[in-house]
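Task: sequence in, structure out. Protein: Sugar ABC transporter substrate-binding protein.
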Amino acid sequence: MPGRHSRRSVLAAITALPLTGALGACSGNGSASTRSGSSSKSGTKGTTTITFWSALRGSQQVVDEFNKTHDHIQVDFEQVPSGTQGGYLKLSNAARAGNAPDVATIEYPQLPGFAIDGVVRDITSMIGDDLRAKLLPQSLGQTTFGRRTYSVPLDVEPMVLHYRKDLFDRFGFEVPTTWDEYAELARAVRRTGGGRRIAIFPTDGMSQMAAWCWQAGAQWFDLSRGAWNVSLADAPSRKVAAYWQRLIDEDLVYCNSSTARVYDAQVAGGLVLTRLSGAWDAGAQMKAHPEQKGAWRIAPLPQWTPGKPALGTHGGSTFAVTKDSKHPEAAMEFIAWQVAHPDALRARLSSGASSQYPAATGLVPVGRAAFDRAYYGGQDIYRLFEEEARKIRDGWVWGPRMTATGFVMQDAFARAGAGSGTLLSALRTAQDGTMPDLKALGLSTTPALDVNARTLTGR
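Result:
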């Protein structure tokens, strides 16, 4: 039946090719046939009502704009909690009960798992060439497994450097362009006293660590040899772990959760001078700390090799049509509008809580015009995001059970932050914890255990 595949067929598709290897063969203009299921209903006068769940900021404004301008489709929106124990757990439970929403927001790392579990449907034949042509290839590649596409990317979020310009000016600091310069700046910040640190190492930061390793050339998951090669402690990842371990050991960074109240207090109190996060975080900062208007600016992320710039992404979301949708064509029409229509981006930015960099890059001028620059002292942050997005290194692959990998990694990071173990041992623990999940799915795996490095370090 169109749109629905067995777990075995999805596993075969995901194993067949790296995610980015299928872009040229995925076009299609047909549509999937309607399936039985729950969550959508046809109203009076030919109106189709679909349901939409999302944790994204600004979604209510987007839905309101869509409903105001569309008579034949209306969207019933529910804001769900973010995180694996929030909206994702709710989505999994709803899918098991057969009443998942028509459209669900799913971040890139979680998409392979939802595809394998049959929660989202194959929408390859429902995405027309015109929509594909509007999307940044790196973003569409992250939603395409084998020759099948399972969601449509909304945004792609290059990691950038957010910094307190007022404090940089007060202490005479220069914006670092390399990671060596960043480490020297961290020491200078420490010397100012007052409990200031250059940043936090996020103990809940699997996605941040992934972005740093991605930038450095790591490849945590690789499908090029027809099996899942898992290497969370490859050479680039070991370099990144060693770098941040030095900053922790020298007491140059705070070591705590990025979602805890303590971090909010650190930012509010001017104790943290930089934040390393995706483009989306500009809007989040503006919403969380309006009192710091004018204090922040954004710069490119420091590089390992300035002549060969590279970046990973931090954040980013996609829209999927679930297996339970009774009106997948209407769901896709809503998704396409959300992703590619200027009014959708204007509506999301009107919330004052979003600064997404659109995967449909033709909307960048819309974002530039709609975003209030006053918080960042008039800086054209969208021009910067546009420049940085070109540096995203192609070929990164998310594993099929990143939620489980993240739980193990974050627990190990917390222990390392408390002095029990190291960041490198945390990466290896996460790799060891990932393998049983992949094998339980029936996947062919080839772990890369960097035996030489373990022997040399004894860790």
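The two ends are 50 Å apart (CA to CA).
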